[in-house]
Amino acid sequence: MFTKTGNVFPDAEHYAKQIASALHAELGATHRASKILMRWTNASERTVKNWLAGTSGPRGEHLIALIAHSDAALKAFLSMAGRSHALLAAELHNLRPCLLAALEGIDALMQQKPKA
Predict the structure, then answer these.
(1) Is 78 within 8 Å of 86 (Cβ atoms)?
(2) Coil, strand or helix: which one is 24?
(3) Rounded to 5 degrees, what angle do the CA atoms 50, 11, 80 make?
(4) What is the average per-residue pLDDT within 52-71?
(5) How far apart are CA 85 and CA 99, in angstroms?
(6) What pLDDT does residue 2 have?
(7) The predicted structure's pLDDT at residue 115
(8) Mean pLDDT score of the chain, rounded to an integer?
(9) What angle do CA 94, 99, 101 make, to 5 degrees?
(10) Taking the CB of residue 9, how many other CB atoms lie within 10 A of it?
(11) What is the DSSP string of 24-46?
């Protein structure tokens, strides 16, 4: 009897479901989501539908293309890789404008004269 050789992803089902969940959260579950994913990755419609269903996950160049376009896919990937601390770095570009707007609001409130 021969032993099985080759690399098998240790938790492929969890991976596929996490990516599907991230894609659904960002794009929804419509036919339009499939078209967007096909455009982003150059993957076939059947492949994309399998990703959205969580029956298989993207591999190689498709995963890279997804992460390049989808913050949700990046977050899911980093979380599964145990790199949650890297999530903060991925969020910094979104956080700065929010902080600036909050500071402007605080400054505007502080400049208002109290009514006597």
Answers:
(1) yes
(2) helix
(3) 90
(4) 94
(5) 20
(6) 54
(7) 67
(8) 87
(9) 105
(10) 11
(11) HHHH-SSHHHHHHHHHHH---HH
